[in-house]
Amino acid sequence: MTATDVPTSPVPTSPVPMSAAGNPIGFGRMLRKEDARFLRGKGNYLDDVNLPGMLHGAILRSPYAHARINSIDISAAQAHPKVRAVITGEVLATLNLAWMPTMSYDTQAVLATDKVRFQGQEVAFVVAEDRYSARDALELVEVDYEVLPAVVDATKALDADAPVIRTDKEGKTDNHIYDWETGDSAACDEVFNRPDVVVSKADILYPRSHPSPMETCGSVASMDPVTGKLTCWITSQAPHAHRTVYALVAGLPEHKIQVISPDIGGGFGNKVPVYPGYVCAVVGTIVTGKPVKWMEDRFENLATTGFARDYHMQGEIAATRDGKILALRTHTLADHGAFNATAQPTKFPAGFFSIFTGSYDLEAAYGKVTAVYTNKAPGGVAYACSFRITEAAYFVERMVDILAHDLQMDPAELRMKNLIRPEQFPYQTKTGWEYDSGDYLVTLQATLDAAGYKELRAEQVENRARYEQTGEGTLLGIGLSFFTEGVGAGPRKHMDILGLGMADGCELRIHPTGKAVIRLSVQTQGQGHETTFAQIVAHELGLPPEDVEVVHGDTDQTPFGLGTYGSRSTPVSGAAAAVVSRRVKEKARIVAAAALECSPSDLEWELGRWQVKGDPEKAKTIQEIALLAHSSLELPEGVEGHLDASAVYNPPNLTYPYGAYLCVVDVDPGTGAVKVRRFIATDDCGPRINPMIVEGQIHGGLAEGIGMALMQVIAFDENGNCLGGSFMDYLLPTSLECPSWELEATVTPSPHHPLGCKGVGESATVGSPAAVVNAVMDALAPLGVRHADMPLTPAQVWLAIQGRPARTDLAFT
Question: How many CB atoms lie within 10 A of CB 472?
């Protein structure tokens, strides 16, 4: 089923009817249904799962970033009175489980056998009667390490004398993973070689950061020795994908594996991969015959699980002297850590970074990404990055601001001059993407108007004059960013993960009393699925949303799909919910026609009921039809009873939400401290199912963007020691660092999505870091600062003012 099979249903502009409970029967503001349990402390998270006889696992991790394992002595740990099992890579090797496939067709050690390749890598798994004994017994495992030189700086990973990290790969003689190209190099050369163009260059680092969800990762595995069924409770954003991977890795029949994702305390991409701890818990339950729980601590989460970014981007942008942008190109170095474990569509090894052309109408573009191994934890695609679009948006928006700086042109004027015009949609980018719809100039103008842009610039003139005269006080900075995001992966013919197409299933059943159950293939981690998907059904069928139960997170209870990440829930599963609701509606039409003794073609739909055209008194509500569908009513030949349907939605294209952000900062040149005074965000994600939830998503993403721009980095010393392994070192923004967000909206529906919706979950994280950094650079421009890398901590800002900004990803240079 594709969107073209079912026409887009226009979102009504008239007031939406309200249910008896005071909720909109359709789109509109509504309190989240799931919050009733969360606010009462009744959420059911992974660590709340306790089974009879359950044991606890703990992982012994390497203290070194790179070391050969000479021997492992587990005898003392095995002798601990509360220890039930000690599992090493040698044990797993006998089961052919020492290595597992990653979602990028690489392999990753479950427990190290030959050597460790990053600090915190898994070496042994202890199973004990309680978590404290399991942790205590880790200290009884003796490992003889031979420390090896570590590759910490990605820019040196391909040096001829760099130690080879993946010696497990036969014939591997370097740390190269892949080279990937997009666009037209020759066309770019032609533009850049024109004699009349202005070329701006910059080296831009998007340093390693971490999603740091409130709840860390964990698993409870329980093997039934009688039935042979394995049940796993996992902090997974993609339970169906995990089940398939476990079947492939462990050789267990897939129908004998049940994966349950309970309530999840945040994911942000961190809970998409399959981690060694999950596999160890499965082996633990098989070995002991008891359920085994493994739950990581904060250091384990920050230092060893899927990180974000680590992109080293060299950029060049070409324009005419009056500011018409002509071409953009980049050579990017991607640090993937010790294993290539990114989770993204197979044909896109660099994710969707090729959207680096952004929202601008260019003549040419070219990009090359080289990926390398380093002695760091694996990952890269996480933290609301929308498959590397966060990196792409940051890159292009910094390059545009640097160009504006070099041309001495107003950044807003430069963007207005180069944004794609509405009549150009659908727009084909020079790197192969087809943007579906947009009115970019209107959205940018909405942000400028809301901010009072002219007044801010006038204030800045006075501010700079005062600082120049006195040398005291703060400097005012104004930063813009405009982003286009591609979400809703994706069309099955183009996008898969491990060969699994990225279409989503959905099932809907209306019970005889008119209550509904919709079963999803996506998994919420706080996005409000139990509310918004109920509202989609309400919008389509006229049922009160409180009468719709949303089931998700259990592979035995839901249809197959690849989960929630890349802002794909509404663009893909939301579309599936609309399609399946329309199928139920059409079946209801046949039942109503039988009851009203007329032809189905004689009926017309009014929200919540089918009525006879021209005689609306003759009608049946959807609740009445549900009862009739289960009754003795004689239905036409070939029409089955009951009122249910299923659908698999294969999107014809991505959807492309976009937005214009403006950040106002005050920077103290004496200390380097940055204060975010205002932040104005205009988002266009198409129609908003629940504006309250959308605004909450944007609030969270903006806070994350401030964190990335001003304080967050996972840095390393020369030995590969992780320096961001606690919240004392890896900082999170609080209400003290965040202003009161000023949100605006424009609405441009997607022409191919059944509801016109585009998705919004990651938009604010995509667009906000560039706005903050651009604002700080704008403030520092009178002091001669053109660029400095995130995070713009007081120390980094102060160094930039002194003319020597630092590499923020390394604690050594």
Answer: 10
Q: How confident is the model at residue 2 (pLDDT cuts 50, 70, 90)?
A: very low
- Residues contacting 748, CB < 8 A, separation 6+: 437, 438, 439, 684, 686
**How far lies 482's CA from each of 104, 323, 441, 479, 724, in Å?**
30, 17, 10, 10, 30
SS3 734: coil
pLDDT confidence of residue 812? 77
Beta bridge partners of 115: 68
Residue matched to tokens 């995990």: 242
612 within 8 A of 551, measured Cβ to Cβ:
no
Decide if 294 contacts 312 (C-beta within 8 A). Answer: no
State the DSSP string of 640-694.
-SSEEEEEEE--SS-B--EEEEEEEEEE-TTT--EEEEEEEEEEE-SS-S-HHHH
> Is the confidence at residue 786, as pLDDT, over 80?
yes
Give Cβ neighbours of residue 423 (< 8 Å, ≥ 6 apart).
none
In this predicted model, what pLDDT tens digit does every residue of 41-79 receive, in sequence order?
999 999 999 999 999 999 999 999 999 999 999 999 999
Question: What's the half-sphere exposure (Cβ side, CA atoms, 13 Å) at 371?
Answer: 24
Reported as a single tens digit per residue, the pLDDT across 167-188 is 999 999 999 999 999 999 999 9
Query: If residue 380 lies in a helix (H) or strand (E), which one and from where to where?
Result: strand 379-380
Looking at residue 18, its pLDDT comes to 96
Q: Which residue has the tokens 């979602």?
A: 103
Q: Copy the structure tokens of residue 197.
A: 């163009």
Q: Is residue 809 a contact partner of residue 790, using CB atoms and an 8 Å limit?
A: no
Is the separation of the CB atoms in 583 and 540 below 8 Å?
A: no
The whole-number pLDDT of residue 251 equals: 87
For residues 472 and 424, give the distance between their C-alpha atoms in angstroms, rounded to a whole number: 48
Cα–Cα distance for residue pair 214/701, rounded to 1 Å: 15
- DSSP track, 246-290: HHHHH---GGGEEEE--B-S--TTTTSSPPHHHHHHHHHHHHHSS
Radius of gyration of the chain measured on its C-alpha atoms: 28
Whether 3 shows a pLDDT value over 60: the answer reads: no
Whether pLDDT at 248 is above 90: no
Q: What letter does residue 18 receive in the DSSP assignment?
A: B
Of the candidates 32, 29, 27, the one whose C-alpha atom is nearest the C-alpha of residue 16 is: 27
Q: Where are the alpha helices (DSSP H) in 194-263?
A: 239-250
Please provide the average confidence, as pLDDT, over all residues in the chain. Answer: 96
733 contacts: CB under 8 Å, gap ≥ 6: 703, 704, 706, 707, 710, 711
How many CA atoms lie less than 13 Å away from 635 in the CB half-sphere?
A: 18
Nearest to 524 by CA among 35, 3, 23, 9: 35
Q: Kindly report, residue by residue over 445-491, the tens digit of the pLDDT.
A: 999 999 999 999 999 999 999 999 999 999 999 999 999 999 999 89
**Percentage of the chain lying above the pLDDT 90 cut:** 95
Please report the pLDDT score of residue 230 as a whole number.
97
